[in-house]
Automatic annotation (TrEMBL):
InterPro entries: SAM-dependent_MTases_sf (IPR029063). It comes from Hydrotalea sandarakina. Gene3D superfamilies: Vaccinia Virus protein VP39. This is Uncharacterized protein. The lineage of its organism: Bacteria, Pseudomonadati, Bacteroidota, Chitinophagia, Chitinophagales. It comes from the Bacteria.
Length: 820
């Protein structure tokens, strides 16, 4: 690529991806873009933008701050990559190059909030970089000017010199949090030379301490001295040994060595590997949770001796693995299975580990009406009982309880076979805790808030339904109305064996303080446990849900229409008939549930719906009913919004919005309205009209209709409700475009009636429903292009509606800064 081509490409660039590709091609950069980096080489870290003003000090400081988030990640988390000696910031007009070590005091400073997304850096860090004299001294090159570009290219070529990493790069840290991953990297580089003697983990522990190794470069040998004072000599290729230790610093801190030593067995304990099965907390999220504990309690909270930790569902201890080893002596770990308890005693020798069924053991003592008393028959260890009674101790409940739902008759979805009633559930039933009593994690919460002292923090991995599901509101208001401190969420499929895609949250609650907050802000994490956004979760009341937006019409006891299970199928065998309607009935909308999980069941029918949650559409609620349908169907379900609730809008929607929703709904796949002739039900015969037919009779009479019966019907019939409604309302140009495309499809349907087997779709009358028309045409490969054009027009209308759904308040608005 020539300079002129480089300049031309940048001039046309509108995204940072194009800028990145142009730089990479022109400067021949061999790079790595894994882990969400822009461009990475061992010598230079690149941060690209589309079009920023680098001469604006705050803009420059913000981009520099973003790059320091990645540099910090390289230093402490991503074990295999060296820290580049240079940082390059660039956009389509300008670039700057700076030595990484000039910013060491910033990216190693724990005072900044490093859990924020890199794209939204800590404002305090940005402010400090603005005030930092070195920021103002950065030379900004105008890369589209030939002389400036040549100077930049020369400096960049020098920076990309492969020798830079060995001679100048900042060293990476080995600590309690990353040592297992570093060990795996060490095994791949130095491990092959370890051929006999002690476990590889013992060699690693010796190697990370400068005074435990003697290096004989002339003879390519290293002497390793172990904790038991014995030593072994191994022949090691020096270029590999030097490479590894050019990237990492030896560990000088005695506390870090002690912490790693305490966890050393895990590195080669195969029984632990076998234990790590489905539904155990991924280690990286346990590590992230520890960071959040540090932010809530203070970085060295475990040193004070004032805290105690209890995990009542410890499993194999994945949650606690990244706790500082120094905290283990304050740790209680209980688990349902004896084999797991035995394993915990081995991995956490300084902790108190024991077998205990938290949902059944000692329940009668905890909920004793005479007050909490520690009877001699309790299964809890005496040490734990004594410390629970000590008012000077602050408790940390750190837990990943089971997510299962207790089985009830006919329940599906999250329900699990074999989850029986517990003693805690029986108590919750007596206390009127509501439907949430069937959730095992809620049962843990219920006992915790009754048993633990007030000065307790609860940090729990769980679903979010106890916060915003309508069935959980009674439980939340009556038993769990506490102050939210901090938390994050991530995709459920990160847990091995989980198939459903929904958010799992780790949320920290202060049980010593109640709260009236209506919203909590939870960080959003990607699968690598990196923060990528913020979720604003509204703590709803039952009256807030969208199904309460307008009153559902009262049906008549003696006005019956055949109940349908889809557009053309009558449901005759329901024990719960659900066939009541009313004389002014137009259609039914099934709107069972209020979250995305249930949105797939939302459908419109021309007769009562045989399923729960349906209501009658009449003239008075027509617009809002179809708006409700559109609001629930247009937003796409993701793992992040799966448990979001659809809400009554906080701002009254405009008439144009309502009209757009009506038109979109008329041609959506979930519109299963139909016209059915001579329907037999309970000994009677019914004629079901399609009140949602969109075109007026005087217009249809001008069309080519290849069916004499239909022609005769049209002469003697009346316009349907929707056709009149459309003619009486002003539509947006996007909605009008949909109607025009639909008209083309309908005309083709009538002109091809003699070529289609219409009986399959029960098409016997002129006012056939959209469900019948689209399926019949599709089956006969007719109007294929026209159907695609209509679908495209309706999608464009949906794109207009979608942002307004959040603007009016039908859904909470999340802030996501990177791809999820």
């Amino acid at each position: 690529m020539t300079f002129e081509e480089f300049k031309k490409q940048l001039d046309k660039a509108t995204t940072e991806e194009v800028v990145k590709a142009t730089y990479a091609t022109y400067f021949k950069i061999k790079y790595n873009t894994s882990h969400h980096h822009d461009l990475y080489t061992p010598q230079v870290f690149f941060e690209f933008k589309a079009d920023k003003n680098f001469h604006n000090l705050k803009a420059l400081a913000t981009i520099l701050a973003q790059s320091l988030y990645y540099i910090r990640r390289l230093k402490y988390v991503e074990v295999e990559k060296a820290i580049p000696f240079f940082i390059c910031l660039a956009d389509k007009n300008e670039a700057t190059l700076t030595e990484t070590r000039k910013w060491t005091t910033y990216y190693t400073n724990d005072a900044y909030d490093w859990e924020r997304p890199a794209s939204k850096p800590d404002p305090m860090l940005v402010d400090h970089l603005v005030k930092e004299p070195e920021t103002g001294k950065l030379h900004v090159y105008s890369v589209t000017k030939k002389q400036e570009q040549e100077a930049f290219k020369k400096n960049l070529d020098n920076a990309l010199n492969p020798q830079m990493i060995l001679d100048f790069g900042d060293k990476k840290v080995i600590n309690e949090e990353n040592f297992e991953a570093v060990f795996e990297h060490w095994k791949s580089v130095i491990g092959p030379y370890i051929v006999n003697g002690y476990k590889p983990s013992f060699y690693f522990l010796a190697n990370i301490q400068r005074d435990k190794v003697i290096i004989d470069k002339d003879n390519s040998r290293v002497v390793f001295t172990f904790e038991d004072k014995n030593s072994k000599t191994q022949k090691v290729l020096m270029k590999d040994y030097d490479y590894f230790w050019s990237v990492y610093d030896y560990v000088e801190n005695a506390e870090t060595i002690n912490g790693i030593h305490a966890k050393l067995d895990r590195l080669t304990d195969e029984s632990q590997r076998r234990f790590e099965g489905e539904f155990y907390t991924p280690l990286r999220f346990g590590q992230k949770a520890v960071h959040y504990w540090n932010e809530v309690l203070g970085k060295n909270w475990f040193k004070s001796g004032k805290f105690r930790i209890w995990d009542m569902a410890a499993g194999t201890g994945n949650l606690e693995y990244h706790l500082p080893a120094e905290a283990y002596k304050y740790l209680y770990m209980s688990t349902l299975h004896g084999s797991e308890a035995d394993h915990l005693k081995k991995v956490f020798p300084n902790a108190t580990c024991f077998q205990y069924d938290y949902l059944n053991d000692d329940v009668e003592n905890v909920f004793n009406k005479g007050g909490l008393t520690f009877a001699p028959t309790w299964k809890l260890p005496k040490k734990l009982r004594d410390e629970l009674a000590d008012p000077t101790i602050t408790w940390i409940v750190y837990i990943n309880p089971p997510f299962a739902t207790a089985q009830v008759g006919g329940a599906k979805g999250d329900s699990k076979k074999g989850v029986s009633k517990t003693r805690v559930e029986l108590v919750m039933d007596k206390e009127d805790a509501g439907h949430v009593k069937r959730e095992l994690f809620a049962q843990f919460m219920f006992r915790i808030v009754h048993e633990l002292p007030k000065n307790t923090y609860l940090g729990m991995f769980s679903k979010l339904k106890y916060l915003n599901a309508p069935d959980s509101i009674e439980f939340r208001d009556k038993f769990f109305n506490f102050k939210f401190e901090k938390g994050f969420l991530f995709k459920s499929t990160t847990f091995h064996g989980v198939k459903g895609k929904y958010p799992i949250g780790f949320l920290i609650w202060n049980l010593s303080k109640t709260s009236q907050a209506k919203t909590v802000e939870i960080d959003i994490s990607n699968e690598e446990a990196q923060t990528i956004g913020v979720k604003h979760l509204q703590l709803i009341e039952k009256k807030d849900v969208l199904n309460n937006w307008f009153p559902r019409p009262q049906n008549s006891n003696d006005y019956i229409l055949p109940p349908l299970s889809n557009g053309i199928t009558v449901k005759n065998d329901n024990t719960d008939t659900r066939h009541r309607a009313r004389p002014d009935f137009l259609a039914s909308v099934c709107s069972y549930g209020n979250d995305f999980q249930h949105a797939k069941y939302v459908v419109m029918l021309s007769s009562p719906n045989a399923s729960a949650g349906a209501f009658s559409v009449i003239k008075d609620n027509f617009e809002k009913a179809l708006a409700l349908h559109a609001v629930k169907k247009i937003p796409k379900q993701t793992w992040l919004n799966d448990r979001n609730q659809f809400l009554i809008p906080h701002t009254e929607p405009t008439k144009e919005f309502l009209n757009d929703c009506v038109v979109w709904s008329l041609f959506a796949s979930s519109n299963e309205t139909t016209a059915l002739k001579n329907v037999s039900y309970l000994g009677n015969t019914y004629q079901i009209k399609n009140n949602f037919y969109p075109f007026r009779l005087e217009e249809i009479k001008q069309w080519e209709i290849k069916d004499p019966d239909f022609k005769l019907q049209i002469v003697n019939d009346q316009n349907r409700f929707v056709a009149d409604w459309l003619s009486q309302n002003d539509l947006s140009h996007q909605a009008k475009h949909v109607i025009e495309k639909a008209k083309t499809v309908y005309k083709l349907f009538y002109s091809n009636l003699n070529q289609m087997a219409t009986n399959k779709w029960k098409i016997d009358t002129w006012d056939a429903g959209w469900y019948q028309i689209r399926r019949c045409l599709t089956e006969h490969n007719l109007a294929t292009d026209e159907l695609k054009e209509l679908s495209k027009a309706n999608e464009q209308l949906a794109n207009k509606i979608l942002p307004q759904i959040e603007e009016f308040g039908f859904l909470d608005k999340d802030e996501v800064y990177e791809t999820i």
